[in-house]
Amino acid sequence: MFKLFTNMLKEEWRIHSTIFGSLSFALFPVMIFGIAFMGSFLLPLFRAVIPGGDLSMIVHALFLLLGIMVGAFGLIGQEAMNRRFGQASLLAYSARSLPISVQEIFCTFVIKDTVYYFCLWVLPFVGGFALASPFIGIPLSLPALLLLTLTLAFLTGLSVVFFLSTVYARSKLYLGVILALLLISGAGLYLFAGINIALFFPPLMLFYSFSWVLFGFTCAVILCLSAVAVLLFTSEYTDTAQRYSSVLAPIAQRLSFFPYPPLAAKDLIDLSRSGSFIGQTIFSFLIPLGLLWFLLSVLTRLLPPGGVLLLFAILTGVIASTMYTWITAFDSYNSYTCLPVSVRALLTSKICSFTVLQLIPAALIIVVSLLSNGVAYLIPALVLCLSISFFSLAVTVWQTGLSPSVMVYDAKVLVTYLFVLGIALIVLIALSFMNPYYSLASVLLFLPGWLFVRESFMKWDILDQPTF
Amino acid sequence: MPPQVPADVSSGKMDIPLIHYSKNMSLMENSPEIIKALGLFKQYGDVTAIDNVSLSVGKGELFGLLGPNGSGKTTMIKMLTGQVRPTGGSATVLGLDVEKDPIGVRERVGIIPEQETPPSFLTATEYLDFVGDVRHIEDVQKKADWWFDFLDFSDKRDVLCKDLSRGTRQKLMFTQAFLHKPVLALIDEPLINFDPIMQHKVKDYLAEYVKAGNTIFISTHILQIAEEICTGFAILHKGKLLHTGTVALLKERDQHLDDFFLSLVQKDRHV
Ligand SMILES: Nc1ncnc2c1ncn2[C@@H]1O[C@H](COP(=O)(O)OP(=O)(O)OP(=O)(O)O)[C@@H](O)[C@H]1O
Ligand SMILES: [Mg+2]
Description:
The complex is a heterodimer. Chain A is mainly α. Chain A has 22 helices and no strands. In chain B, a hairpin with a 2-residue loop joins strand 1 (35-44) and strand 2 (47-57). By secondary structure, chain B is an alpha/beta fold.
């Protein structure tokens, strides 16, 4: 098992490093380190605006979120399973021909993902902060504690998603029940007892006051969730031949106003049949954003009126842009090379499908603004959310082409993305805090967005497509 | 006794044109070269996958590209269909420059890639619909039905591609390549996953297909079949062109393709 583990690690590393070259990929954690290091110097600045408690809560929430996203990314839906356990993933797949149980492979796989992404994200982040802490007058014990609690937050997110996604694979009904219970109890506590359950997030409590009991409890929760996930794990659903009546032609006909109806119809079918439409919407969209809303609502008293909603809209926009990875997950350009389909056509079609998916964030913003008495700011919030989503999409397409989920680990790509998007976000946050209606200016983002997309057509419409 | 390797044809840098003997002589005069490759090179890092290969294939030929594993057959087909960019040299297919107009080339030809990868979540029927839509084929359903019947996989038409057996996926890819009746098909090892009955059927289909005036460029390891159906052939080894010639010429000399192939490759290994 240990051998399998080390080989899986090696494989994951090679997949990434052969694509970008070892150096460029090795730079990725270095860059996270750098960002954390330099970001730490802004801490005193933040502190002036946001109380320390809220700040640590935000950081923990971010790592919880990161865990959720990483988990959701690797494991959602049958297709991801199929891709990772199918022909695409070499070792996890070939291990099936060895005398090892599926549970064991899955378990190894989970541990591998944990270790791998821990080294890629968590460790460099805390490292950067630790290095900066002497300069900003923070005792070193704080980063040490932070390393522990952030790791736990990350692992909690990961194990929650593993757990929920295996439940999802077994029964969608159970998942619905579990999520509804969580939502109702969370919202109930908040509305009737005025308790924000976010404050009872174990790793956060541990950060505020460390105790071995609590530490044990936190670990137990994580282990239990993962253990149940491993036990529940089944690969059966990949083994049955599924039959469907043919729907591509009628769908394509109905989508005839799209530039490439068959491609759009295929996206739609992929999303629904793989189960990733519902899965991704829940795990990579609603859950993270639900968490964010809880967090942001803590800031209500600090922000100008409408500020929370607008900030939420901005973050929703950023997360909504990752929907591009949902529709690119099924396509390797490989399967188009025998057809007269250019990369440009494929990109155009993906962008159209993405546009349709933007109904989801739009609906979310409408619901949230209704629930939070923010109807007055509905229009600016909507405009903000969608402009940012499309802008962020444009940058993603420009930087990563058809393989966003792989290319993001190229340090250069991520820096460019963060830099370009960061500037836009800072300006827009400032504008919308000044006056909610100033944020309507975000429509201007469509212009550079369009330029980026045009540039990406030139950049990616080449022979020798990178195929994964 | 090792079979004789004719001295005049065993050098890779031998000048084209080939001696065409095909029954479609008259057609050839109109457009003599369906595929023309001039000094093609392909470099993958420090591996030279294709090393200065020149080839030409005339209309109505069934041209076999032979060679050991890793000799560059797939790379060659990928370059000729605009899937990878040559590092050097040039190639035209049906008069189109593959580098300048890869999509135009792919519009006109049929391709079976080495790895059969129809999209996972479409059923077999839907995939053919999809191809039909992309290629603007009339009456796809009727044509698809014919193929389902011909290749004997009607019972699998509603199964998702990811759940199809390998051979069935290969049947689907075969259908996909011929659905629009292309004047040229480039097919990479299309027979290997078929059972003997299917191999036979497909072999006959290919032979008929070129008789009707179309051209086929096939890479294969099954030399016996190549010998039966190919008109011209080329042998690649480590990216270099060892030989181009016609099967008829071999027959005249009473040589078998597999003996010829083995001795040629063996000899090149020792060089
Ligand atoms: N994408 C790639 N990157 C690097 N090297 C490659 C790539 N594709 C092929 N090669 C190398 O190019 C050479 C030729 O490979 P190719 O696939 O064309 O051989 P082939 O004749 O089709 O072999 P086979 O009979 O096994 O299918 C091999 O040495 C291979 O390792
Ligand atoms: Mg090959």
